[in-house]
Amino acid sequence: MSNPTSNSEQPLRLLVIGAGKLGGYHANIASQLDGVELVAVADPSAEARAALAEKTGAEPVADYREAISRIDAAVVATPTVTHLDVAGELLAAGKHTLVEKPLAPSLAEADKLVRAARQAGVTLQVGHVERFNPALDAVREDLADPRFIQATRTSGYTFRSTDIGAVLDLMIHDIDLALDLAGSPVVGVEAMGFSVLGDHEDMVTAQLKFESGCVAQLTASRVSYELERRVQVFTDRAFVAVDLNTRKSTVVRPTDEVLERRFNVAALSSERKSELMAGLFDELLVRSESETPAVNAIEEEQKDFYAAIREGRSPRVSGEAGRDAVAVAERILECVEAHRWDGADAGRRGMFASPAAAVLPMGLPLEGERRRAG
């Protein structure tokens, strides 16, 4: 892997592309990290790039190409549909690149980016920031060899990332976590979902079956009145529940007597049953709770990116990992589109499960016309 910053005393020269919310986070963090020089921030909006440049001390540029010759690495925080063009050009120029999730809107485009990084011999990292959530790291040993994974991720409608739906916007995080935890190929996918406000799916539930026998149940909604980011994992030896928002974790570890099937319910006296009802999670299913201190996960993600560049190693979330998540997301979207809501070919199907067109305001396209229009 090439390394344009082989001298560890030289700062790594960085460009942040995109001055929106995520681009702002990345630029502000990079501007304060030792060993990093934020050279420029790029955005077609003069107001947005000027405001971010003023906060970070970087040069504002309208076109990222203006700064390519002066950088070693870049963060791409632009709309998903632009990732192939923007990141592809950076990689072809030999620049290490961190691409915000998802890596691309399709497997075909994700494959192209992974190949481009390999051909150039540079680092490609994908912004699956939940991998850096300290609550998961705190219980990592108890997550080994999962049998069942359940993840729920819901939020209100932010009116951002409207170029993609809930699968690539929200569920992609939990797809990545499930793939990382299971460590096994996906052999089956089932899913259903529908659109509520826009032209993409807003609510989706999916089930993944892994070659190892593990099953993952994933739910995502961006039209919810509750903000929720939870993961539950069942293994052969424990149950783990993690609130990714509050960083609170609960681990339940059955005693050896329970695990080895030596616990005989039928042999218990009435008195002992009463005792165990009150102390089940102290004696048999031993529960422990913890709360990890807050960290800036995007900062940890950036630090891993820079360390991977300097050390010539793979980042924690490689381009290949980002590509694999997109591959599963694509299969989920295919299932969503194929789902028949009325159980018949002539009935409603796909994400647009609206009633008959008679209830729609005049002038709006029918379901079939909307689908053909893209």
Automatic annotation (TrEMBL):
Gene Ontology molecular function, alphabetical: 4-carboxy-2-hydroxymuconate semialdehyde hemiacetal dehydrogenase activity; nucleotide binding
Oxidoreductase as UniProt keyword: yes
Organism annotation: Pseudobythopirellula maris
Name of the protein described by the UniProt record: Dehydrogenase
Keyword Oxidoreductase appears in the UniProt entry: yes
Ranges of residues in domain Gfo/Idh/MocA-like oxidoreductase N-terminal: 13-128
Protein keywords: Oxidoreductase
Residues in GFO/IDH/MocA-like oxidoreductase domain copies: 153-237
UniProt EC number: 1.1.1.312
PANTHER family: BILIVERDIN REDUCTASE A
